[in-house]
Amino acid sequence: MPENTTPALPPVADFADLDMPAALLKTLGEQGVTEPFPIQAATLPNSLAGRDLLGRGRTGSGKTLAFGLPLIARTAGSKAEPKAPLALVLVPTRELAQQVTDALTPYAGALRLRLATVVGGMSISRQAGALRRGAEVVVATPGRLKDLIERGDVELGQVRITVLDEADQMADMGFMPQVTALLKQVAPGGQTMLFSATLDQNVDRLVKQFLSDPVVHSVDPSAGAVTTMEHHVLHLQDETDKKAVTARIAARDGRVILFVDTKRSADRLAKRLLANGVYAAPLHGGRSQPQRNRTLEQFKDGRVTALVATNVAARGIHVDDLDLVVNVDPPTEHKDYLHRGGRTARAGESGSVVTLVLPEQKREVQRLMRHAGIQPRTTQVRSTDEELVEITGAREPSGVAVVIAVPEPTPAQAGDASKPRRSRRSRGSRGAGSGAGKPAAEGQQRQPRQPRSANAAKAGAGSGATSGTAAGGARRRSGGAGAAAKTGAAAGGNRRGRGPRQAAA
To answer: Which residues make Cβ contacts (< 8 Å) with residue 492, sequence separation at least 6?
Structure first.
């Protein structure tokens, strides 16, 4: 951790002791936030004064308001021009961007600040529209923000306050070029704040280049220091027993996040759990953003009880009253272990992190725990052991397959999907064959192709050719009336062979 040369201001015991607008203090009370968490108490006096910050606090310790409150307070009263935000929050994942947006929205609204979220997987046109209308605060992932800059939809020259949340992941080699390029575009001399649950050597490069005499705070240094979090390592006999243990844990009375290594593993495990009677759903980067949002909502409201996730869920997802996280596949990096575990025991609540370990994984997991500063309780268990029940609440799944209901489309969406537009081509194709322009969605089946005589082939070519060119005639000769019927069925009567419009996801 770097050292600051200018002394930091002392921490505060109460939000009322801070120089913040009355509307912010009122909103804090309305949101039930009555006293600052340690990282907020330590950093807010300095960030409100405009100092650069390097803050370390475990996930769930209140980092979002630690940077969000000063960002909003110091931006209040200013109005952004179109395409020119005044404050920027960079985050590594879409889920974290949404969580930051949700957390800051009531406070930004209290001071009439416009907030825009810029992430991949969602409509870039809508995001561009929000930026063109003007937004004082932008919460963004680096890739989508870069795309919008290249399109000319936003420029960062007016940004005076910049935040990097989860700075350690942002500083990883995959993010560093984009993050560095973006930070070089903000207004010089502004305020920069870096926050993360872990701050390793990679962050030094950003600190030395972009922070000026930062105030450094380290609060709740790791998940291992959280007294309300228990850590368990369960040694299993083999892969078969691991599957049985996983199924029994997933069937517990209560929600659980099950972390696995790959997208394919997440899909397979969720499918297997559903077949065994567990309401499970996968969450990973291979799913669309609407799918991911829907899965998270179902997990938060209890329709999904077992969330099978890759590390995409390890940062930025907050679920109230989640008391168990299971590493079905142990992580390879201690930082990932800390972030996975940070989904539970948040904001003073209690929770457990359980890691399943096969015989060949023992040495690697021991190394992982040492680097994470964790001293777990180690237990040898089988799927039928009572100790498994005591640690995780495991129980036998019903074995009766279940299905997660997908929300019904709205009437307008259903109407759009069931009534594809007709076009000139669909009307013109009637002469090529009976029912050629009707959509396949109506249930009409294509008749098998009949052998054609030479005369029939000529007739088909003559009736199908409309352009008069040799190429057009060749296309029609190759299919004749049958090809026209096939085109009409596949295209649903839409212009230029495009399919019917789909209902919005």
So the answer is: 420, 439, 440, 441, 499, 500
Q: What strand order describes the sheet that includes 115-118? A: 115-118, 137-140, 87-90, 161-165, 191-196, 53-57, 215-219
pLDDT at 57: 66
Digit-coded pLDDT (tens) for 244-289: 999 999 999 999 999 999 999 999 999 999 999 999 999 998 888 7
- CA angle (437, 443, 445) in 5-degree steps: 70
Torsion angle in degrees (nearest 10) through CA of 77, 83, 87, 93: 140
Nearest by Cα to 273 from 305, 313, 315, 241: 305
Residue with tokens 């997990």: 299
On whether the CB atoms of residues 432 and 481 are closer than 8 A, the answer is yes
Q: In the chain, which stretches have pLDDT less than 70?
A: 1-4, 57-61, 172-173, 197-201, 219-228, 313-316, 345-348, 407-505
How does 109-134 read in b/e, with b if 16+ C-beta sit within 10 Å?
ebbebbbbbbbbbbebeebbebbeeb
Q: Compute the distance between CA of residue 222 and CA of residue 335 in angstroms, rounded to an integer.
A: 9
Helix (H, G, I), strand (E, B) or coil at 193: strand
Among the listed residues 256, 293, 294, 262, the one whose alpha carbon sits nearest the alpha carbon of residue 278: 256
Separation of alpha carbons 163 and 96, rounded Å: 13
Rounded-to-integer distance, Cα 285 and Cα 264, Å: 11
Scan for tokens 């984009």, then name that residue. Answer: 178
Instruction: Please tell me the distance from the alpha carbon of residue 295 to that of residue 273, in angstroms, as a whole number.
Output: 15
Q: Which amino acid is at 420?
A: P
Helix (H, G, I), strand (E, B) or coil at 254: coil
> What b/e sequence results for 454-483 when a residue is b if at least 16 CB atoms lie within 10 Å of its CB, and e otherwise?
eeeeeebbeebbeeeeeeebeebbebbbbb
Cβ distance 280 to 305 under 8 Å?
yes
CA distances from 248 to 389, 397, 399 (A): 9, 6, 11
31: how many CB neighbours lie within 10 A of its CB? 13
